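Write out the 3D structure for:
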Amino acid sequence: MRRYIAPVIRVLAVIALLVGLLIVFGAGTSSPRADLVVYNGNDVSTLDPQRLSWIPDMRIARLVYEPLVQHDVLDWDARIVPAAAESWRVSEDGRTYTFAIRDDARWSNGEPVTSEQFRYAWRRGMLPDLASDYAAMFRFIEGADAFYEWRVGQLGMMERGESAYADGRALWDATLAKFDELVALRAPDARTLVVTLREPVPFFLDLCAFAVFCPVYPPLVDQYERVDAASGRLVRRPGWTRPPAIVSNGPFEVTDWQFKRTLRLDQNPHYWNRGALHVRSIE
């Protein structure tokens, strides 16, 4: 009799597992079919602009966030066109770019997009703490190299117990001050962003169109990042990049994200150029 018990238990275990999988994958939010259904190649690993790396992430990020400028994908030469910035001017020496953020640029929660939020996001991208794959792209900005190296050096001193700062929080406050001192990235008012490069970079506007240069919403991100008192490093939690927490400034917002199953985007009701959108939802 015993020799029959073990196979029966195994069969029952398999049946229980299958039933469990059916429950998990059969459950989910019932939402109307999207206007556009596409295959993205893989699940998205992150929607943190400064942490983007993989192409599937970039595709979604371009729909969810909006940088200062973007490429006109309908133009053969993919020329640069306005996006969150309605206009810009370049100094005669080709080093200083002054962007005018459009008045009607809005986050998905209705709050205005400001120049300081771009500055906040770009500073994140420069930090060694974030280990961004594209941190080097920010280092065309005057002072960005010096800031990066200073931060690396100070973190090393903190780790060795040689820091002049009492704790990690004090080092972080000094880091913010050092960024203001060294990096030629200014937000003189809510609608103006001024960037000075260490030398002329003919493709700088193309960089500004890259998803890693998109802004983030500081009141949200600050809730998920903290400074470790012992090491001084910025510690991240990724929860803000998923619905319902995520706040974005692009044409669409993430309304549903089921791991390795589906991701749904619906129009950002506050997007400044909704009239140009021909679909209301994407899955």
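The chain has a mean pLDDT of 91.
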